């Protein structure tokens, strides 16, 4: 797959390639009411834009995501979450760094139908993704931001026993 997109890509927006279609490759789905993610198995998640696949199935060079980000905003939302939220959910630190480079907002709040409020730092802390957490901190996220329930990332690390993330937060 990466050979098709590397170098002078044939799937270049300038050449008229479409990026507005949706695919059903994802393994994650999202409850838009609670903001909770759940793994459903490859191909069973809701259809989403192609750039979401570039985050979820990130290839080593990052060429596909890089090319798409030249034409699509990293702030693009799908069911209330951004590409940054999706990259964190997928545990993809390299994609997180690339999205931040292209202007993704480290404080982007997830929008759910029942008004749950949490940010990328909360997802990384809850999932125990210490390298992603460090990337968000380096990008200037608010360490003291709170969820709708009043929890900080530090509280979530403690609650879910995420020791490596605790170490990152207390440095």
Description:
By secondary structure, this protein is mainly alpha-helical. The protein has helices at 2-5, 50-56, 63-69, 83-89, 93-101, 120-127, 130-138, 153-159, 163-170, and strands at 22-23, 28-30, 37-39, 48-49, 77-78, 81-82. It has a two-stranded antiparallel sheet with strand order 1-4. The termini are far apart.
Give the gist of this structure.
By secondary structure, the protein is mainly α.
Q: Which key phrases capture this entry?
A:
about 170 residues; mainly alpha; two-stranded antiparallel ribbon; globular; disordered N terminus
Topology at a glance:
Blueprint: H1 2-5, E1 22-23, E2 28-30, E3 37-39, E4 48-49, H2 50-56, H3 63-69, E5 77-78, E6 81-82, H4 83-89, H5 93-101, H6 120-127, H7 130-138, H8 153-159, H9 163-170
Antiparallel strand pairs: 1-4, 2-3, 5-6
């Amino acid at each position: 797959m990466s050979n098709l997109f590397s170098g002078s890509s044939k799937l270049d927006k300038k050449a008229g390639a479409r990026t507005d279609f949706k695919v059903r490759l994802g393994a994650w789905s999202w409850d838009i009411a609670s903001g909770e993610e759940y793994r459903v198995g490859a191909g069973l998640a809701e259809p989403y834009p192609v750039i979401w696949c570039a985050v979820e199935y990130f290839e080593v060079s990052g060429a596909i995501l890089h090319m798409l980000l030249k034409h699509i905003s990293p702030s693009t939302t799908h069911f209330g979450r951004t590409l940054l939220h999706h990259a964190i959910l997928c545990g993809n630190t390299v994609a997180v760094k690339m999205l931040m480079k292209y202007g993704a907002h480290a404080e982007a709040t997830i929008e759910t139908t029942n008004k749950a409020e949490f940010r990328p730092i909360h997802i990384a802390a809850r999932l125990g993704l210490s390298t992603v957490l460090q990337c968000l901190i380096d990008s200037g996220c608010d360490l003291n931001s709170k969820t709708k329930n009043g929890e900080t990332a530090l509280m979530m690390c403690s609650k879910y026993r995420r020791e490596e993330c605790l170490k990152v937060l207390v440095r």
